[in-house]
Amino acid sequence: MQGRAPEPGGVRTVDELGARLRALQVWSGLSYREIHRRLVRSRQERGIAELPAFNTTYRCLSPGRTRLDVELVVDIARAILGDESRAAEWRQAHQVVSGLAAEASVVQVGGRVESDGDAFVGRSSTVAAAAEALRTHRLICIDGMPGVGKTTLATRVAGQVQDVELEFFVNLRGFDPARPPADPAAVLDGFLRRLGVSGSRIHGLDLSARSALFNQLLDGRRAVVLLDNAASDDQVQPLTAPNALTLVTSRRRLKAHRIGLEVFEPAESAVLIRRAAGDKVDREPAAATRIAELVGHLPLALAVLAGRIKAQPEWTLGDHLERLQEHTARLRLDNGVAASLSLSYQALPPAARRMLRLLALHPGRDFDAYAGAALAGAPIDQAREELARLVRSNLLEEHGSGRYELHDLIRLLASDQARDEDPASVRRTAIDGLFDYYRKAVATAATVYAPQDRARIEMTQQPGLSELQFADREEARNWLEAERSNLIATALYAADHDRPEYATGISAMLMYYLGTASLFSGAEILHLTAIRCAESDQVRGRSYNSLGALYWRLGRYADGRAAYQQALDYARLAGNRVGEASGLSNVALGHYRLGDYEQAITSQREAFALFEAEGNLSGMTTTLAGEGWPQLRLGRPEIALELFEHGLAVSRKLGTDTFEEAFALNNVAAAHEALGRLDEARQGFEQALELSRRIAFVNCESDCLNCLGRLHLAAGRVGEAIEFHEQALDLAVRQGSRPFTIEVRNDYGHALTAAGRVAEAVEQHRTALEDAERIEDRHELRRAEAALAAIG
């Protein structure tokens, strides 16, 4: 083997992935026979019964394949590389070419491992053995058949760990009937955010770097990680930190200390039935025993039956047994598991049955009562009653946070029933109701979260008020965070099921939230989906504009400029003059960041003329500022000041306390600073800062703080300068704006140098230099290089 092993990154088709896999085989020098031997041995060691024939492995490595089995691709990579994390890259590549990468990146990470508490039945010896194994090995895998109680046991064991400082929980969707397994990189994104790492930093890290940082941040801290429903070792490996206690559940045997979970012992089944039936068990012990036997002592089936027994107290256990036997015979099943679930479903009142069927249509993983009400087309109080009934029947799981989730087996049952009982028109109406609920709720939350975005949001959404209301920005942010995965999942579903207007609307309304919350992967998925399914040039242009804004925030200036150019082209095709002006102005931003200042000025002037002709005051202020900044970079502060003052005058025609005025005040102050008028500059920055804070305009607030830091440094007030730069850097990092973060780091470095804190200054300038190189910000790159050269 010579050189670096071929990697799967960047492949877009099955042919490309197959070619890259063949290149890996050639690089390894291993024969097909040896790869097959290693693959079989690996599967045997992991307890996987399915062993491929040699011809199957050979065909996977042969050209001309129209499809590739993901597990075989990953196992071949594992056999050659002997490295789980590198093998995981091949799963991700397969997801890309299979069109599943977007869905695999939609992951909901929880921060608390919740136990069933008093509802737990039996298994005391298994719990004790698992707890001891966790203390000894720090990584255990609880495996077993569906419905055997793996998650319940894992949460029980996790709950017994003492002095826990941090908890992480995620459903890896390894065997989800409708959605692909969760991408480990997306899971680590969620874990790292819970540890306080900014989205901008996470976005720049690959899978192995995220995994290393996760382990580093857990060092010296008592942490428990529960990885539920894992598909494979390569999905789990990047998420297992040696510094954490990790519990994994899976239907497969994985590479970890194994706790094999079987069905209940008869005595344990009897305890569960007694909890539901009371002293009926004493009067009818044979019936209780036979009920447990018919469902194979499977905990999920027993729990569902127990819910039915509670709901029908007038029935004897013999009645329940006879009904179960009849149902089992009719379904011609070898065991009563499916019969138990189906029978409990049939025992529900019609409204509850209908609710369960419609809940299974939800494209996301978990949901709240409002989503249930929307699917059922019912008032919220009625929906809560039906959801509570399903929870009591053990057909629905309720989390302490007021959210609900269907077990995979019950989701399958309910989905089958929905197809059998509900016409397609009824199912479409339910999904339309869900879309309508999310659309209105997103519009409401996004407007409270970002008041300055109100006009664009109101233009995007259809009329209608949300039943949900939010008291303040924090409450709106919390709702958006809780529903983020559902919103992206429903948008992906809508794009593939002839509802493009929902996908494009959600993309537009979430643009500001996803950007400022540094949820870059989700934003990119959403905006690309909107572009893919947009039905008009105007909407497609708007979606490209959202994508360009995302790339701009990430410092991907070339990509941003290309997206903005697409937005401009589509606006022209649609005859959208304001859209054309916005496109021109945005393209100019790309020219500006890439150092083409004259072209930026030309484009901004063209945009201004269009905005002025349309009477669009907001656009006029934006383009005046956009022309002023390249003038400053070209050493023409007098011209810049004139443009900025014009922009301030126009902004004040929009009303009081506007975002446009805050930016304009900041721009005028920057021109005064460039002209050496430091008192006027300070007054202007302070005015802009006060206004920004009053209207919660965090982007401008961080900019003002940084500028005031520069002025304090110029006046010799080094301590004050450092304080202002630290505040600015904190806000910039939290907002996820990589370009502005680079600028602040360079300014902060100068203040640290003046304070004699040279090592810290070097760290800031080096970080700025590396980031500036990465995003091709030539201006900040030169500043960082000059600062480091001056320090020596």
From TrEMBL:
PROSITE patterns to which the protein is assigned, alphabetical: TPR
TPR repeats: 662-695
Alphabetical list of SUPFAM superfamilies matching this protein: P-loop containing nucleoside triphosphate hydrolases (SSF52540), TPR-like (SSF48452)
Keywords, alphabetical: TPR repeat
Source organism superkingdom: Bacteria
Protein name: Tetratricopeptide repeat protein
Gene3D superfamilies in the cross-refs: P-loop containing nucleotide triphosphate hydrolases, Tetratricopeptide repeat domain
Protein's UniProt keywords contain Cell membrane: no
Positions of the ORC1/DEAH AAA+ ATPase domain: 136-233
Keyword DNA repair among UniProt keywords: no
InterPro entries, alphabetized: AAA_22 (IPR049945), P-loop_NTPase (IPR027417), TPR-like_helical_dom_sf (IPR011990), TPR_rpt (IPR019734)
UniProt xrefs under PANTHER family: HTH-TYPE TRANSCRIPTIONAL REGULATOR RV0890C-RELATED, REGULATOR-RELATED
